[in-house]
Write a structure and sequence with these properties.
Blueprint (H helix, E strand, L loop, with lengths): L1 H12 L5 H5 L2 H13 L2 H9 L5 H5 L4 H11 L6 H9 L3 H6 L4 H11 L2 H12 L2 H5 L4 H11 L2 H13 L1 H5 L2 H13 L2 H12 L4 H6 L4 H11 L4 H9 L1
Length: 238
């Protein structure tokens, strides 16, 4: 066991000083990820430190974003605070990252692995733009993730924002996917309010049902309205 630990530490240390150049290469990024897996806590922290000041470049890179994600998974929340800071340092940073092909993956990992306070602050930064994020091809995955990770009061705020943008969401396949998750993750009253908001707009349910991700949302809506006979009939009439 001691020999294995020493071997892992040596493997991790071997990338120190070259993390950034390796991270931007297809093969090199795998070397850095393996080093993070094998190294001890201190070496992992030192590897991550070489990404300080380069978080935006990394999350926009097809290779380095994987290294950032692995760091987030392997580090303690306090050791990756600089990633949150750099994300927020850019105007509309969290929203921009959420709508990026690779950045959306990093934002999801931060939501998965951040501390309660870190996640709460990130959710707050994304909340104002949740409608636009939801209808974006990459942002939709972050918006869905928000509904799983937000605390109860923030989830309620998200649900309110979705209500405001409901027509646009239900006419967009990415937005419909978020509506589906919202109906699943919201409490009974929140889900019911969303469903009534949809059937209250003539033709909207039918439009959503024609979308790739809209059909599962329509099925979920019918389930939510199962005990509401008049609402269910109205939905069926659509």
């Amino acid at each position: 066991a001691a020999a294995e630990a020493a071997s892992g530490a040596a493997a991790g240390s071997s990338v120190l000083g070259s993390v950034w150049s390796l991270a931007r290469d297809a093969a090199g990024c795998r070397v850095v990820q393996a080093a993070l897996e094998d190294a001890g806590d201190e070496v992992r922290r030192l590897i991550a430190e070489e990404l300080r000041g380069r978080v935006w470049e990394a999350l926009e890179c097809p290779y380095a974003n994987h290294v950032v994600q692995r760091c987030i998974v392997m580090l303690r929340p306090s050791e990756m605070q600089f990633m949150f800071d750099e994300l927020n340092a850019r105007l509309w940073g969290p929203t921009t990252a959420a709508q990026h092909k690779y950045g959306c993956r990093v934002v999801k990992r931060l939501l998965d692995c951040g501390s309660q306070d870190q996640v709460r602050r990130l959710v707050a930064a994304l909340l104002a733009d949740v409608g636009a994020i939801s209808t974006h091809p990459y942002g939709t995955f972050v918006a869905q993730h928000l509904l799983y990770h937000a605390e109860e009061d923030q989830r309620a705020a998200i649900m309110s924002e979705l209500q405001v943008d409901l027509r646009d969401l239900c006419r967009n396949t990415h937005g419909a996917a978020v509506v589906h998750v919202a109906m699943v993750q919201g409490d009974e009253q929140q889900a019911l309010a969303l469903c009534r908001g949809i059937i209250g707009q003539p033709g909207l349910l039918a439009q959503m049902g024609c979308l790739r991700h809209g059909c599962p949302a329509v099925i979920e809506l019918m389930g939510v309205l199962e005990g509401e006979s008049s609402d269910l009939q109205q939905a069926r009439d659509e």
